[in-house]
Every structure is written in structure tokens, then in C-alpha cells.
Amino acid sequence: MKTYLLLFLVFSLIIQISFGEGEQCGHQVNGTLCPNGLCCSKEGYCGTTKPYCGKGCQSQCDYVPPPTAPPPPYVPDVQCGRQVNGKLCPNGLCCSKEGFCGTTKPYCGKGCQSQCNYVPPPTAPPPPPYVPAVQCGRQVNGKLCPNGLCCSKEGFCGTTKPYCGKGCQSQCNYVPPPTAPPPPPYVPVLQCGHQANGKLCPNGLCCSKEGFCGTTEPYCDREKGCQSQCTLPAPAPAPTPTPPNPTIPRKVINILDAVI
């Protein structure tokens, strides 16, 4: 029994060391900070739980664990095409030869039944990188925060009211950088013609041989298979040039009057 207990303690110690936990810190070792932004407990050890980050914590006491990526949502198989009476896929997805909805080559390539030029909506920007707690102020010899961040009363860098408000030590009027404009809204591909039960395109757009709406030559040229509303938009008429206004010299007018 003692052997099993000893093995368990050794194994726990190895795990703590591998993650940076269990290392010494604080005034017990000349004010050393914990790696990876871990909290330093009253007793001078690194960790992330309440005994380390709560009462008596010496430094980096507001440890924030790095964000975990959520798992992708489950998408059930959606049927489409001739297998289910010509049903179209939602959100403009392609319908494969076998009658299932998707966005990759097996769905949108050879044998695709409908909506075969799927354009994915713009992706959201990646989440900001994880930034461990940064110390500042009198707690670390008056050090300023990077990028103009505020230094809180407790000596940590941030941008919200607890950092920039009451008790803020330095750089207390932080102005965030301007945000990028939102991406344009996603516009699904419009189908028409015999691929969509003879449906006409909105706003008088041409219907191509493949059954998609547009305004350029591949959509509107009858020789290339345009199905309906095949008239290309007429170009704007060019402005008519103004004829020059001829001026007749006064001497010529006098001669003409004398002849008449």
C-alpha cells in the first residue's frame, strides 16, 4: 500500500513540474515570478487554483487560462436533388451526385446537381492571442504597461474600468485602436431556369445555361445558352457633340449686303 501511495505522489509531482505548477516563487525566492502567468501562493508556489490565486497570493493573482477552441457543431446529412424531388440545399450549399449537401469538391464538382458554384461566407477573424497577466507600477519598480495599457491599483495591465479607473497608477486614459469595418454581408448564389423549375432571376437579371443569375456575357449571351431575360443592359448613349458656332467676319457681311 505504501508503494502505491509513493508512486502516486511522484506521479503528481511530475505532472505539476511539467505544467509549471509546483515551482517556487515570491519572496521565498527573491521575488521570482511564476512562468506562463501562474499565480504565486502565500507559501511561494506556482499554481492556478484558489489556494494559489486567492487570499495571500503574492503576484500574478488574476491568472486567466488560455481560451479553449469550441468543438465544431454537428451537422447532420441533408438530402437534396432528384433524390428528394429536386430540393435545394440550405445556405447555397452544393448538392452532390448522390443527393447530399456540402461545400467541398465531392459535392460541388463532377456530378453536382444544383448550386454548384458555392461561395462560402466570410470567416470571422481569429480570436486574439492569449496574453498572460503583465505586471506594472510600483509592484515592479514603476514599470509601464506595453501598448499604452492602463496599470491597475494592484499592478496589472488592462483596458477596462478596474484597470483604468479608480486607483490606476499610469497610462489611465487608454484609447483602444479603431476596429476594422465589418465584412460585407454574405449573398448566396441565385438559381434560375430549368434547374429551378423555370424560375426567373430578380431585377431582370439574365439566367445562364447553368441556371445562375448574372449580368455579364456568360449569363446573357443566347449563343452561350442564356435561358431567360437575355437582353444585356444597353450601354448609356454617348453625349452628342455640340456643333461649332461659325462666326462670319463683318467685312464679308458688308460685301454680301452690297451684292444683294
From TrEMBL:
InterPro entries: Chitin-bd_1 (IPR001002), Chitin-binding_1_CS (IPR018371), Endochitinase-like_sf (IPR036861). Disulfide bonds join C25-C40, C34-C46, C39-C53, C57-C61, C80-C95, C89-C101, C94-C108, C112-C116, C136-C151, C145-C157, C150-C164, C168-C172, C192-C207, C201-C213, C206-C220, C226-C230. Residues 22-63, 77-118, 133-174, 189-232 form the Chitin-binding type-1 domain. Residues 1-20 form the signal peptide. The keyword Methyltransferase does not apply. Keywords: Chitin-binding, Disulfide bond, Signal. GO terms for molecular function: chitin binding. Gene3D superfamilies: Endochitinase-like. SMART domains: ChtBD1. This is Lectin-B-like. It comes from Raphanus sativus.
